[in-house]
Amino acid sequence: MSEKNVRLGIIGLGAQGGMYAGVVADGKVAGMSLGAIADIDPAKKELAAEKHPGVPFYDDYVAMLDSGDVDAVVTTVPHFLHAEMTITAIGKGIHALTEKPAGVYTKQVEEMNSFAAEHPETTFAIMFNQRTNPVYTDLKALITSGELGKLRHTSWIITTWWRPQAYYDQSAWRATWGGEGGGVLVNQAPHQLDLWQWLCGTPEKVFAKLAFGFQRDIATEDEVNAVVDFGDGATGSFITSTNDIIGTDRLEMLFDQGKVVVEGSKKVTITRLKQDERSLSDGMSPEDVGRLFTGRINTSELYETEVKEYESVWGKQHIDVLTNFAANVNDGTPLIADGAEGINGVRLASGMQLSAWTGREIDLVDYPAEEYLAELNKRIEAEGSFPTRS
């Protein structure tokens, strides 16, 4: 265990920033201490003094970066600010852990990634805490091993994001194009978009139907139905919304030699074929087909199924990422999620929006970043409440 200590600066003392400050101050993050807090809201100064007496407070995050009080920062601020603040921190030699999503549009994320790449001496990570969830780390290892063969199809229905109107009404920036940059895709679903491409591979194309202000009085998307193309014949579908009070969380991944079903991010059913599916198909006689259709075939000759139940690890995941971040700064421990990987989810989310706006399939490999930004700015201008982006 390293005796080195990373002094973390919290930019934005909201719900998330307050949680991080608490776990660090309580000594729950090995190799890290609470260095300082920055927030533009004067009320947060009193809150910080009450919760964390003696910890320096700044009303300007740049002043905090220049203070000598911090070695690293975490950006718990609105999505549009993640890239800008990360670039500023890294430019001053301060390690940066950016919150998800990495940004709203790919142009700003590409600028952040390029700048970080020019400063390899500075750690750049992203808070993809779901990558520490044993459900998904175990699946990642299984898929990477190649035991199940190549991906054929995957679907994720993730509608456990029910949000009543009062949720949107509490802040003027929520679910706006200029303040948040989108709805369910940029607020609730970034973790699933990251996990999906982390497990299955980065999609090459996307076609999507989105509903904007469908069941809520908002400008942005609250209903998403997207189809992606992974290349080589593999496809996938992604469904999410914020108006399903019952909610479903079901991930399916079909491979040449098996299938994985994840329910509620807790129950995992893994079915392993005795041979790859094409070999099973080619080896079946007409008599076998007859037995199969009449339920007289012994399925254990074809496949075996394993069911795993996982306990919830809610709360521990953020601590794991913070601990890993500190370990990378202190000892060079590999990151759980390199900050540069954040662009994949941003490209996928904005590709879904652009597809819905234009009615066409969007190429995610040769992504039309400028077209997306132009379309986003049209919507920001129409709102009339926020500056356009560049």
TrEMBL record:
Organism of this sequence: Brachybacterium ginsengisoli
Segments forming domain GFO/IDH/MocA-like oxidoreductase: 137-260
Domain Gfo/Idh/MocA-like oxidoreductase N-terminal positions: 7-121
This protein's UniProt keywords: NAD
Species lineage: Bacteria, Bacillati, Actinomycetota, Actinomycetes, Micrococcales
GO MF term set: nucleotide binding
Name of the protein described by the UniProt record: Dehydrogenase
